[in-house]
Design goal:
Length: 320
């Protein structure tokens, strides 16, 4: 009985694993184009104004300036009509651009884009994904956030070369850039249901998708936006000039046995007596007529009444 029960449990476990595997394969077969594409349909209502929130994709200054010089016609998708207008796959220019981005930008994992379906924002119209002119370029998240090191570089290159590529729209990391808008208003915040932080949504107009624009004839027309220059290092301040050497004034004693005291005034203890004519170096004072002086390496206080500047000293004062 126990053996039969164990065999029954084992069979049930294998059946459950098989069903999970089938479900996983079915999900994988659907692919990114259907899941991610459902949120890629652009309409004017998804643009919520000029960017003012930190964290969204904001092109570099050089990319923004180059993008403002670009213009590309915006070609909308035809009516849905039950899918009769779908293109059947990515068009030649769309696929060529996807291949180029995957080869040229480190971190681009893969791309996809074709899905024959109605526009989720306007179900009477076909999604641009159904025309074969839309790409989803996938970039793995970093700890749940957009990898702006990779994604910004791709987006900046696309908008800087939109005219020669035929790029009409880019959506990346909560921002949308439309090549048909006037300079200065091409970039706006994106308010659609998916933040587009793990893939760029890129649309080509009919000329780009058909390889009729300049880049498909000559790759050298493309330019790379220059990164913002690093701030120049602050200039090293010039060293402060060395202070000029200070020459302490010299004086002479003009009284015999002038007392050198420990403090200013006659109450200060006597250190020694200095003979008339003795040279001293003034190091402080005067304080109430007393000078702090150095006499033969001994420092103390002497009355200024019995000192005279060395320049005006006459030996005759001391009877010499």
């Amino acid at each position: 009985m126990g053996l039969q029960w164990a065999r029954t449990l084992m069979s049930a476990h294998r059946l459950l694993l098989g069903l999970v595997g089938i479900g996983f394969m079915a999900t994988a077969a659907v692919g990114c184009a259907a899941d991610e594409g459902d949120s890629d349909d652009w309409d004017e209502a998804s643009d919520v104004g000029e960017i003012a929130v930190a964290g969204r994709w904001t092109p570099s200054a050089s990319a923004s300036a180059a993008g403002d010089r670009q213009w590309a016609r915006y070609d909308d998708a035809p009516s849905w009509s039950g899918g009769r207008n779908c293109g059947g796959g990515l068009l030649a220019g769309t696929r060529e651009l996807g291949d180029h981005l995957q080869r040229s930008f480190r971190g681009v994992r893969s791309y996809d884009g074709y899905a024959c379906r109605a526009n989720t924002a306007n179900t009477s119209q076909m999604s641009v994904h159904g025309t074969g002119r839309a790409l989803d370029v996938f970039i793995p998240l970093i700890r749940g956030q957009a990898d702006n090191t990779v994604g910004d570089a791709v987006a900046n290159w696309l908008i800087a070369n939109a005219s020669s590529l035929g790029v009409q729209l880019v959506i990346w990391d909560r921002s949308t850039w439309n090549a048909s808008r006037p300079a200065g208003s091409k970039l706006r915040a994106y308010g659609g249901p998916h933040p587009h932080n793990d893939h760029l949504h890129i649309e080509l107009n009919s000329d780009g998708a058909a390889r009729r624009t300049a880049w498909f004839r000559d790759r050298s027309v493309a330019t790379s936006p220059t990164p913002a220059p690093a701030p120049a290092p602050a200039p090293t301040p010039a060293p402060a000039p060395a202070p000029a050497p200070v020459t302490l004034p010299r004086m002479r004693v003009i009284a015999g046995g002038l007392n050198l005291r420990r403090s200013a005034g006659t109450s200060g203890a006597i250190i020694t007596a200095m003979p008339c004519g003795a040279p001293v170096t003034v190091v402080g004072g005067p304080v109430s007529g007393w000078y702090n002086v150095d006499y033969n390496g001994v420092r103390g206080w002497a009355s200024g009444s019995y000192l005279t500047p060395e320049a005006s000293y006459r030996a005759s004062v001391c009877g010499s």
